[in-house]
Design goal:
Blueprint (H helix, E strand, L loop, with lengths): L2 H11 L20 H12 L18 H7 L7 H10 L15
Length: about 100
């Protein structure tokens, strides 16, 4: 999920009396499917992928409580998240910092 969606949910929850003692799942509306991601990257950017068979499956989080009680909705889906990531350009005065070198 995109950090903007998480930040928006946190801002809605802070100092909100409804959220006291409650736990919320904050997630995209659908889990990220690596096959769909590979297809999208091939269609939009001409990138190739390889299939790696595995037994892993996506986890679908129920974020309905956050939607109902906070009025929160994710603004990013897979395509928008990819497009925003590719379009991001670090400014010259924002050097890359590695906080964990291990």
């Amino acid at each position: 999920m995109h950090v903007d969606d998480l930040t928006a949910a946190l801002m809605m929850a802070l100092d909100n009396p409804v959220t006291r003692g409650r736990t919320y799942n904050i997630a995209m509306d659908e889990p990220l499917d690596c096959g769909a991601l590979a297809t999208y990257l091939a269609q939009t950017r001409g990138l190739r992928s390889i299939d790696i068979p595995n037994g892993f499956h996506s986890t679908w989080l129920d974020d309905s409580r956050a939607k109902l009680e906070l009025g929160w909705r994710p603004a990013y889906d897979m395509a928008r998240m990819v497009d925003a990531s590719v379009a991001h350009v670090r400014t010259p005065d924002d050097p890359r910092r590695v906080w964990y070198s291990g």
